[in-house]
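Milestone M4 deliverable, item 7.
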Amino acid sequence: SYMNESPIHGIVQGSSGSGKTHIIGSIADLMPGEDVLRFTRITESSLYNWGEFDLFRKIIIIEDLDGLKEEALYALRELISNQFLSSSVSMKDKKGNNKSTRKEVKGQCSSLSATTKGETYEDNMSRSFLIAVDESGEQSRRIINYQNQKYAGEIDQKDQEKAKSQLQQIVRTLKPYEVINPFATQLELPEEVHKI
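Output delivered:
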């Protein structure tokens, strides 16, 4: 969706060590590398300092949403909601004098973040899909079984890399189209949905 006019954002929530970062990293690996920006952390003003189109049609991966300070979270929310950031900055003109100017960062982008505390990001939750990590014993057994097969040489890593590369190529060829849902007027969200 990062190529569409209304991109989708997600927050992956799970306990420490549940594989949140692995999940978002694996999703990012399926996307064209040139379109993915991975960050361990984002400082308070860093999103404002990108070039005007540096974030346009990109996927922003934030490994630890919990480590972001409120100013960085605010910038991320604005980027998600308005698809741009605007700030007044001082720059020197040709004569060396300070001059105020407007700086814009276009942000038609998608984001995917990991957190242990999804409920603490209420403002972000209303702008993103909250995805819970399956931490069941059954899922843990599936993961261990996969890892055992991998280390036993029963899973062909080359096949997996080939599939990953093929998906990346497919995504590169996608083009945005306007979607009309003729049933949109018949859809209703359940009352218990957070911030309908």
